[in-house]
UniProtKB/TrEMBL annotation:
Subcellular localization: Cytoplasm
The UniProt record lists the keyword Cytoplasm: yes
Organism: Cupriavidus necator (strain ATCC 17699 / DSM 428 / KCTC 22496 / NCIMB 10442 / H16 / Stanier 337) (Ralstonia eutropha)
GO annotation, cellular component aspect: cytoplasm
Pfam families noted in UniProt: Usp
Name the record gives this protein: Universal stress protein
Homology family: Belongs to the universal stress protein A family.
Length: 151
């Protein structure tokens, strides 16, 4: 059924739960999993303090590499064929969902798996919803894995 699973990771609890589900599906179907981390610094505009843009991007990139290394290690330990991609050039700033869908299309993924933070209210309005954007932009099956609901 599924042979190519694109797994979007961000190092969060919901991302770890999504990884667990991707492993279960991949083991059941013999699928390959490609873990993707999108480097995007657009959230910096919600910070009130001073920041160094280069340092910020370097920190996000390092966090992405760490998240991808952890995902690859778990996938390999589970015996799942896998690859990773750190996308340092998103399709458009602040449009992580479009970058995920573009990668899924380019790689010919059969399924997209990602965690969702369950944001509500003002936080959802300000920060947007990557998972909602992916659902709106793709015709591929999408598995959303939710952790705790944030206020």
């Amino acid at each position: 059924m599924y042979q190519r699973i694109l797994l979007a990771v961000d190092g969060s609890r919901s991302s770890d739960l999504a990884l667990s589900q991707a492993i279960i599906i991949a083991k059941a179907t013999g699928a390959e999993v490609k873990a993707l981390f999108v480097v995007d610094d657009s959230d910096v505009f919600f910070e009130a303090s001073y920041f160094n843009p280069k340092e910020l991007v370097d920190n996000i990139t390092a966090h992405g590499r760490k998240a991808l290394d952890a995902a690859s290690a778990r996938l390999s330990e589970a015996g799942v064929r896998n690859s990773v991609k750190l996308d340092e050039k998103p399709v458009a700033p602040g449009r992580i969902s479009l970058t995920i869908v573009t990668e899924a299309d380019a790689w010919n993924a059969d399924l997209i798996v990602l965690g969702t933070h369950g944001r509500r209210g003002v936080r959802r309005l300000l920060m947007g919803s990557v998972s909602e954007g992916v659902l709106a932009k793709t015709s591929k099956p999408v598995l959303l894995v939710r952790s705790e609901v944030e206020g």
